[in-house]
Design brief:
By secondary structure, the chain is an alpha+beta fold. Helices cover about 20% and strands about 25% of the residues. A hairpin with a 5-residue loop joins strand 19 and strand 20. This is Disintegrin domain-containing protein.
Length: about 325
Amino acid sequence: MHSKLCICVLCVLLLSCTCCYGDIIININFATCGNGVVETGEDCDCGTEEYCNEYQPCCDRESCTFKRIDFLCRNNSTRYHTGCDLPEYCNGSSIECPEDSHKRDGYECWDGEIMSYCYSGDCKNHNTQCNHYWGNESKNAIDYCYKYLNTVGNKYGNCGVNKDGSYKQCIPGNGYCGKLFCDKNPEVRPQQGSTYAIYTITYINGDTNTEITCVSVNISLEGDKRDPGLVYDGTICAENSICIDQECVGLSTIEPKRCPEVGGIECGGNGICDNKFKCQCNHNSYSEPVTCSGERESISGTMSSEANNLKYLSIYWLAVITLLVLLFH
């Protein structure tokens, strides 16, 4: 009987066995972290590093536990650089990174040296659109092109087309939301499969006797698609105003909804309101995370890899001690 028990103890030392002592049957199976199978005692097991990074970014492949609640799992470098995207962190109880989110419309953002406003997660201005069509050396044209040409309502300057196909004049105040004008004309990069026409208009400024060049592009797309040569929606057109459907409208009219306030301040001044109108707090230690207010003593999280290893070690030695007690009973 002792020989059986010795074999059983050896099995325990090998971390997996099914053995018996008299009428007592002992099943001991230790999980193997990294085999891609979630076993007893594991929160997750994503297997290879490539699979973990792609499909289970919030699973710690070394300990097979959920990653801590402040682990960064997504950061869109381009959008985040302009200040409109929001980083996502693991929630401590899931293998998945939370859904991609961004600041609600209306937050100030900067693209280079130009201040604008976040719209649908992007920071848009006339310069970035000029770069898209004419290359990085191109910049937005001077005010004259927008104020005068777009109010004419012809192929050179307009605010889109009417239902009958005629060009729509931009009313005063909407000029910056009509046809896009840039100051350079290198090789154009139109959308593939489209036809385009480049219009270059040069004027002489009577006051300064200098040339004024306004370069625009007409891109024809199939169907009723909007002309990409028009200024993008969300582009800043005035203080606290952006372009929507070739009109310059105030931010308050397009985004009246806000996140919860504390003392009249959105998210208590301790967080950012996202596109779902939920506060994303600066850190996780607020007792009232809905409003990013109140302090709590500690941050609740998941078991660390060290704690998880200690858990397995405790189970292991408990099994050994149990068998030794049976041996000398």
